[in-house]
Amino acid sequence: MDDCIFCRIARGEVGADIIDERPNAIAFRDVNPQAPVHVLIVPKQHIPQLKDLGPDRCEVLGDIFSLANDVAVSEGIGQTGYRIVCNIGEEAGQEVDHLHFHLLGGRFMKWPPG
Ligand code: 5GP
Ligand code: ZN
After folding, report:
1. 0.70 exceeded by the pTM?
2. Which CATH number does the domain housing residue 67 bear?
3. Domain count of the chain?
4. Which residue of 19, 24, 36, 60 lies most exposed, with the fewest beta carbons within 10 A?
5. Which residues form the domain of 26?
6. Could you tell me if the CB of 95 is within 6 A of ligand 1?
7. Which helix (H) or strand (E) is 58 found in, with range?
């Protein structure tokens, strides 16, 4: 996707505070953080939503969650706790149509989410 913002960040065409990456995923800080730690974990390939990730692409989810684990530790929230959120579709508040997981931590979280 030529004009997708997360594809452009993954290709290095748009700047972002990149923390780490895997062959199939990249982690960078959210531009509008909602917690002291707010990192987006994103597949490098353009995948709009979770439903578009078929069983033949399980390695993408493996890279996403192993990256999330390592980022949580490197950001110092691996022991205190954190939340991983994936907004899917309009009612969940998905604004960017490129699959992404929010890694949030560094403060107490409320439940249920708003
Ligand atoms: P969504 O609401 O789709 O689940 O989350 C999209 C997230 O992407 C938002 O938290 C928003 O702040 C973040 N975001 C949108 N555009 C950019 C950008 O250009 N750079 C970075 N680093 N984050 C972005
Ligand atoms: Zn994209």
Report:
1. yes
2. 3.30.428.10
3. 1
4. 36
5. 5-105
6. yes
7. helix 58-74
